[in-house]
Batch of 2 targets.
Target 1
Amino acid sequence: MTDLIAQLRDIVGEAGVLTGADVAAHSDTWPPRGDCQAHALIRPASTAEVAEVMKCCHAARQPVVTHGGLTGLVRGSVTRPGDIVLSLQRMRRIENIDRDNRTMTVQAGVALQTVHEAAEEAELLFPLDLGARGSCTIGGNISTNAGGNSVIRYGMMREQVLGLEVVLADGTIVSSMNSVLKNNTGYDLKQWFIGAEGTLGIVTRAVLRLRPLPRSRNTALVAATDFDRVAGLLRTMDTALGGSLSAFEVLWNDFYRLIIGDGENHGVPLATDYPFYVLLEATGSHEDIDRQRFERALEEAFEGELIADAIVAQSEQQREDLWAIRDDIDHLVERLAPTITFDVSLDIPQMDAYVHEVRDTLTARIPGSRCVFFGHIGDGNIHPVLTVGKKEGAAVSEAKGIVYDALRKRGGVVSAEHGIGLEKRPYLGHSRSAVEIELMKTLKRTLDPHNLLNPGKIFSLQEAEQ
Amino acid sequence: MTDLIAQLRDIVGEAGVLTGADVAAHSDTWPPRGDCQAHALIRPASTAEVAEVMKCCHAARQPVVTHGGLTGLVRGSVTRPGDIVLSLQRMRRIENIDRDNRTMTVQAGVALQTVHEAAEEAELLFPLDLGARGSCTIGGNISTNAGGNSVIRYGMMREQVLGLEVVLADGTIVSSMNSVLKNNTGYDLKQWFIGAEGTLGIVTRAVLRLRPLPRSRNTALVAATDFDRVAGLLRTMDTALGGSLSAFEVLWNDFYRLIIGDGENHGVPLATDYPFYVLLEATGSHEDIDRQRFERALEEAFEGELIADAIVAQSEQQREDLWAIRDDIDHLVERLAPTITFDVSLDIPQMDAYVHEVRDTLTARIPGSRCVFFGHIGDGNIHPVLTVGKKEGAAVSEAKGIVYDALRKRGGVVSAEHGIGLEKRPYLGHSRSAVEIELMKTLKRTLDPHNLLNPGKIFSLQEAEQ
């Protein structure tokens, strides 16, 4: 190992190698805990250096865990003693912005928020957005196929990536830095690495697709009396808004009541006795025209008896106030602590029955448990948040089983936008067949035969990783 | 071979197997030529039958070419003597439409137009659209990652596919019939097969994503005096139309003049002396509101001196008349016959210089040659159409060399939306590196070690296929 570290020091320089207490002070998860188990942390400054590092690690059969912003929440970046961390923190340059081609070329370590700001400066939009924007990196967004707040309009991270450069386990550089929307020249290799959680290659650079910067925004909070109406509202608003619907966030009554409480924090924008609340947003190009369209769409929903009440934001402050209800996860977590949060997807027509089953089963089987629901319903994505009063133990396992088993029955998905990591590995089989998992392993074995890249994440290839 | 045919007859029934003259009467390309070289044509009626067929073919090391609608235009479905054709023509059932989930589940042999009609009946849109809609199949659209008329707004076929079922070379059924927008449970296997031109697996079923059905449409033909203004217009219109821009088709002067001619066929909607014409279309949700937005966007373009003249369609008839100019490829091909058409992509800032270089080099090196240009410029996609007065021979090869070499220099793409097939195989290396092509071959060898599925298409694994 000492020999290897010396070799790596030759490649990345003195400042690029941390060992001992300097590594232990790092974290490999979020919130930071400063308990990184890895033997060393290597910080290459270029793709060429990443490739050289991997050649050495490959020759030494050294497992490598790649680190971006560490905000994935599924223990996808945790390390074991003896692992080496490869951090992209020295590769955070925006290399190029092309306003006419509407593309941005970046190194993988750049923070999402930096990309937002650079795009806006060029009067363009990079649409992927999520809470961890200040810390998460583009490489991490790509490796986890991140979702977030505007998937309904712009798609997941996969749809924002035109070109990709990765380093394979043996140090081969695969540079597919495509910058056009249409490229059907053979297999689209980049797709293999997007969402692969660092198990197939190390993302070093990317070409990102940029969009027109919206000039207007309209936001409303509406109330609905049953889930069929929520589904009808999604259909109606998406049609009536002509493709400009950019958020459709649903808060179940239990979520809304818990956040609103006595009204002290957020006021009471709508009465607390409706079964469902929907936070709607549309982005567009003209203040007046878009406001008119938004109001007419809401009228259509009222006339169709899809909504029972509504409040439309009349200012940026009011808009922020409405979003603050949806985003007050801190308050939620505080009130329910210790919490277990989930990130599941299922067909919209199945959601109502799913939520009922989870709630009823929890109540019946785990006394004192409590579960609230909210989510990006426009994307089919629900985040159940539950508590059983304990951080770990049998009740926690049982609760997870209840949430995931009800999902499995309905063909649902145990990870919508966060990935599998170690956290959801035991449940991968709930959403993917044995044939699918075997095919994943086949690709893994082909590209990384010595199982060096983020070993044991998503699935296990060796008994030792179980 | 006779034994194998008997086995396959047992699987798919008497009506499912064609041999001898019945196969020769078939075509394996478009326009139909009735010169299919294959030994037999097998028509399974279900995924299970496809799997059984492939098990037998795998055991017999029998090469198989999958046939959809045969409209791919790159000789991706041509057969050799001794091949077997597997046709999806008996698998054209729409299994399910879910209005709330906005998904459609189909067998791969269903025609694109049938999907359009079924979606519309459910008041939804399947947005992929292209000229061959009546004959091309969903399986073919998936296997070629088809593009077409609305990529700027909705993306390629890849973006329309949520779930996929494929049969591997050894008959394994991989069923990934996901029906939600967000699914990060391990590798996204379907991405491997989309655009793989039938070389990695046989697509048998799919879950398609549907969109809101537009309620309004606005169309204009505008003229611009230089390419910088065309690029500026794209940026301006896409921003000012708030994401509703659904077509941005550019006709170079030579294309427009050739189609307009003496005005007999299409009238003369705009004078014929502008360097560029752009056919713009936006789809939306409200007749009045969208018309207002469209006119204001055009005003903004006029004020920015991006456009020199414009005609806005005032009726559905006028809209069709404008599109007829863009779509009159028959007339173009007739006037220039014999023609060679291309399907290339490159960065928008490179396009003007590219077109000039191709035109100048052709004129200088091939006397009597002629080339006109048009394309989906909003997607970075140009279709050069050229003639050298002959169907094949040295001048044709030289012309292809000129078109592709000028592209290679600029990092362009030899196939934007049609794929590689056999037609573009010699030029794959213009757009993809040796490392990329080797990685493609690695996946091919892993999934299809005996090279049975559409062998020799995209790239060659064996000297014999060169």
Target 2
Amino acid sequence: MKFTIVGSGRYLPERVILSTEIDQRFGLKAGETQRRTGIAKRHFYDEGTSKLAKKAIIIALKDAQMSYQELDLLICASGTFEQPIPCTASLIAEHFLEEKHPIPCFDVNATCLSFISACEVAQAFIASGNYKNILVVSAEAGDDALDPNEFESSALIGNASAAFIFSTEEQPKAKYDVELLGAKFMTYPEYAHSAEIKAGGSADFIPENMQDRYFHMDGFELIKAMRRKLPEFLSSLLSDAKIGIEEIDFLVPHQASGPGMKIAARLAKFSKEQMVDIIEETGNTIAASIPFTFDYLLKQEENFQEKVVLLLGTGAGMSIGGQLLRINRR
Amino acid sequence: MKFTIVGSGRYLPERVILSTEIDQRFGLKAGETQRRTGIAKRHFYDEGTSKLAKKAIIIALKDAQMSYQELDLLICASGTFEQPIPCTASLIAEHFLEEKHPIPCFDVNATCLSFISACEVAQAFIASGNYKNILVVSAEAGDDALDPNEFESSALIGNASAAFIFSTEEQPKAKYDVELLGAKFMTYPEYAHSAEIKAGGSADFIPENMQDRYFHMDGFELIKAMRRKLPEFLSSLLSDAKIGIEEIDFLVPHQASGPGMKIAARLAKFSKEQMVDIIEETGNTIAASIPFTFDYLLKQEENFQEKVVLLLGTGAGMSIGGQLLRINRR
């Protein structure tokens, strides 16, 4: 399957929380939070998901030298939402009302892997001819769901946004030709509750215990799940694509946590040189993490010729998703 | 584009609220709520979205004479969710753990039109060869987001679930061959706040005013929006498909409200005979409404040969979505 990347953009909001502030909050010695998580700072945004998404979209449109009027689909691929109703994609489109260009809007949600699922959808739409210029945006805003008394999520999660514009091979503005060498997505629901926000939906709309409105993850359980599932997942993805691990130029992983990424790299036998690791500067930005890191890579590499890139991550559900791309700068 | 329907199912939960109870609550004379809304009763389910989804899935699998192990993708297409994290599709898959058959799971959300968006995704996946046997399920559970003091949503919204299994033409178990004659989806974000739940997401996580956790719709504004947008939307869908309105055998509309459906039928010049209207028995079941009504139609019509069916609805966002299908029973 072939498609193109016309442009992309990423945005990191201004408000910063340093890991040294987390040290102080939890009575740890300076540097301990960074030592445990690999994270120096996280950024936060308080004006809602849709405005944060808009920031990345404007950068991506400029990068693509494309106007909003040229888009024909907007998919929001975030793990969290701005309002329970309507979908966040509609609220994002509201910020582009002055463009007088209505387009179809919907959300795709696979928590931290939403961007990977939305890429699958966008690629299928391009292959089937349903849509041509597809904007996929992931944005995560706010810190209200982070329990200030729980070290793990308090120290890991941050905000960011990133947007990609995908199109057909015929798009003259395309920057990169992309060949999808392989794609795999799998959900292992025995770990469905290892990372969750229990309350706020139909299961428990207004909980008695406020704790249930907070994000909770069982890091130990998730790492156990990754050990059990990741090696087989990856070898099946690579063998379907007939690609050896050494042929992968860049691994763009979900920046989940410093230790998690190290274990994943070891399990999958990735070298330090293959791994794009920017978690120190961003923390875990949920669904924004993979497109943010992917955009970072595209902007870093001057000469992107025939590079093989693997987007890979785990997300609540628990799901593992991977996209193996051969990318060629036009 | 061609695909098949292998099977489908719908489920209406047991707990009933009669419109005469709403008459009493709002001090109206008996029959007034039904006169205003077209609804005699709604059904409610208190055990969460995923269990309600499971009910419809089991019926659809039986209808398809298919086992869960034959599925290769599960899309949850609901307008509301069970938990903020993970996606509802994962929580649904958790109920099928004993099948020992992990499949990819994600959610598609376009509020009341989620099923239409998910159909577009499923059709593109089938056309592009990504997936073969795709389960799309819509389920809406709970009444916590309905303001008991607001007549409109209190009188309209109900719970239900419905599931469809779509596949390729090669699937020997397929019951219906389907040709997609046309599809259109459009979002008009100037009406993004005409139907919404303001609080509970990143915009306002824990609101000061509990009212903001309730669903609110401006029925007058939505009907105005429909008058402005629906006729042009529909004529563009029909002319792209080269189909006249009189060639449509059945309109399967989103069962939004009695008056809304009447206005839509008049605007679009549909006859009473074309319209599948079951709102009296179900109320507005959000995203479950279209697949529930579609399944009802398929089970009603004994001899489904070369019928042209239009799935059509409006949803929060505000979006209009339509799928024009030529359906032939094998």
